[in-house]
Amino acid sequence: MPPVRPGPVIGLLLQFAMLALLSAAVGLGRAGWAAGAAYALGSGVLLTRAMHTAGLVAFGPADLVTQTRAALVGCVTALTAASFAGDAPVPALVGITVVALVLDAVDGKVARRTATASAFGARFDMEVDAFLILVLSCYVAPSAGLWVLAIGAMRYVYVVATWVLPWLRGQLFPRYWRKVVAAIQGIVLVTAAADVLPRPVAVVALAGALALLTESFGRDVVFLWRHRAATIGAIRRAAAQAPAMAGAPGAGGVRGERA
């Protein structure tokens, strides 16, 4: 019998509770509820699959913080969808986004202090960040220009590119500048969403953020290109070893325990 993973279930309940509170406070409308519900269900399925792949049954302390951030991102998603159907409550959207951005600095610290850092947690955190940037880009684009969507789409274009270009799957070394650039995207986008800057200044800030993001991705792509031979070789060796591993004694048992 597959193990019960309470984390995604709790996240789903938390998300709908937040959406209900948000709807009662500022209103969401059909578009907001539809987007929020789709986000909640979709993220729950993806999270369950990711935990299954990682062999996890329960969240760690830091994952609980990230799950809270994910629920906040769901609220921002709902408000953004509602904005396309009418006037959105900007203070609510900006306030929730700011809390989500602040919590982004918390989950990593919790993971380190509790010695529960993991590849799953890092990926969970990254995907929540990426989707928040995508949603904010969608919110800002109608007023600043559709080119702003490039900020939110760049991460996903990169992921799609890895399906076509295997050498992009190579390992990248940790780089503090990536974190700085990611933080800048969120800060600039939420500032633009708050509409507290003159339009020309906001556009220049957004263009600068996009330039920094392009430079960061570009540097990584160049690094991976230079090391493409090693990456492709590693992929081929892993593919060659896969049949042997599948038939090895105990391999089926391991998969059974994680099913």
Structure summarized in a few sentences:
This is Membrane protein. It contains ten helices and no strands.
Description of the molecule:
The chain has one domain. The protein is globular, with a radius of gyration of 20 Å. Helix 4 (90-113) runs antiparallel to helix 5 and helix 4 (90-113) runs antiparallel to helix 7 (176-194). The protein has helices at 6-26, 29-54, 61-85, 90-113, 119-144, 149-164, 176-194, 199-226, 228-246, 251-258. The longest helix is centred in the last third of the chain and has 28 residues, at 199-226. By secondary structure, the chain is mainly α. It has ten helices and no strands. Helix content is 82%, strand content 0%.
Question: Which structural class is indicated by helix and strand composition?
Answer: mainly alpha
Overall 3D shape? globular
Rg from alpha-carbon coordinates: 20 Å
Query: Uncertain spans, ≥5 residues at pLDDT below 50?
Result: 245-259
User: What is the count of structural domains?
Assistant: 1
Distance between the termini: 8 Å
Percent range of helical residues: over 70%
Largest sheet: none
Order of helices and strands: HHHHHHHHHH
Number of helices: 10
Mean pLDDT: 89
Counted beta strands? 0
β content, as a range?
A: under 5%
Family: Belongs to the CDP-alcohol phosphatidyltransferase class-I family.
Transmembrane segments: 131-164, 200-218
Pfam families: CDP-OH_P_transf (PF01066)
Keywords: Membrane, Transferase, Transmembrane, Transmembrane helix
